[in-house]
Amino acid sequence: MSFDDLVQLLILGGAGLAWLLASGIDVTEPCIDAVPVCLSPELPARLPPADPITLVYGGVYLPWQDPTLGLTVAAEVLASRKKGILLILGGRHPTYPIAVPAIFQKLEKELKSHPHVRFLGMRPHRELIEIYRGATAAMDLMAHNYERELAFTTRTVEYMWCGLPVIYNDYAELSPLISRYRAGWALDPADRAGIEQVLTEILDHPETAHERGRNARRLVAECLTWDRAVRPLVAFLHNPRIARSRTADLPSYVAEELGIRNFWERRNSFTWRRLKPMFRTARLLYQQRGLKHLAQQTLIFFKREFYDFGRRAKWRETE
């Protein structure tokens, strides 16, 4: 799709809703369901509380991930309290030819000889789960980026599935769910003091982590197992929503839905001869302020245009 196509979609489509309308979708009804990352309803049994207290960080090293602050602070707190251990289970991607990112190379260099940190590398999944079952909590803090914000992170669900409370970002889709269930701690990943406070709480009161670990298992059991998470898909398969056929062009159809008939005959301010300067303005908005601002301004424009249209149409009908 070209930029002009995108702008036309936003201008004529009210940020996409009009296209759904023209496709026969009733936008007053929920039209999108999600099936999140989910695991077996047979949750692994927990092992006795770890001694020493054990924090884990697991997963493939990827270029867009930066767990530096969380792992560094964890090592510092464990060293200052002279107890506990941080296990880092990860490494180069086993399938894709992705080099170990510089961030992780630096982390390994700085923490390799740390007395409270152990790098265990990549492990078979069965062994990984056994380690998680006996750990105390999971370090899952990443510096903010859009991939982490949009991701429904698989490793996080697996931590909680194993009964581990997670020290997690406060900006991701899972964050509100973790906070609501008290299944861990949702933090600003740049908040050093907050990270230190949580780690100190775990070291001084491990029973708090055990309680939140039980909450994490309950979260998964109630929301993120196969039998529960696939329900929206099953419901759709039992009762699929079939689009109504539409023959009218998009602007006419949207106008008719808003109570405005004979759109092209009655158009006044919104004419094709205005589209060229409108595209130029839209392009400038997109370049200077981004897509979100362009969408907001497009919606404001449409509300004003169709409001004026409705007023003129009503006035003509009463003449």
Outline of this structure?
By secondary structure, this protein is an alpha/beta fold. It is 53% helix and 9% strand. It folds into two domains: 3-31 and 245-317, no CATH class; 54-232, Rossmann fold (3-Layer(aba) Sandwich), CATH 3.40.50.2000.
**Strand order across the largest sheet:** 3-2-1-4-5-6
Write out the CATH superfamily name of the largest domain: Glycogen Phosphorylase B
Output the structural class. Answer: alpha/beta
SSE topology string = HHEHEHEHEHHEHEHHHHHHHH
Average pLDDT confidence is 83
Largest sheet: 6 strands, parallel
| CATH architectural label of the largest domain | 3-Layer(aba) Sandwich
Number of domains: 2
The DSSP helix count reads 16
Terminus-to-terminus distance: 45 Å
Quote the beta fraction: 5-15%
Q: Based on CA inertia axes, which overall geometry fits?
A: elongated
- Whole-number radius of gyration? 27 Å
Helix content: 40-55%
As residue ranges, the low-confidence spans are 1-13, 268-273, 314-319
* Beta strand count: 6
CATH top level of the largest domain is Alpha Beta
Give the CATH topology of the largest domain.
Rossmann fold
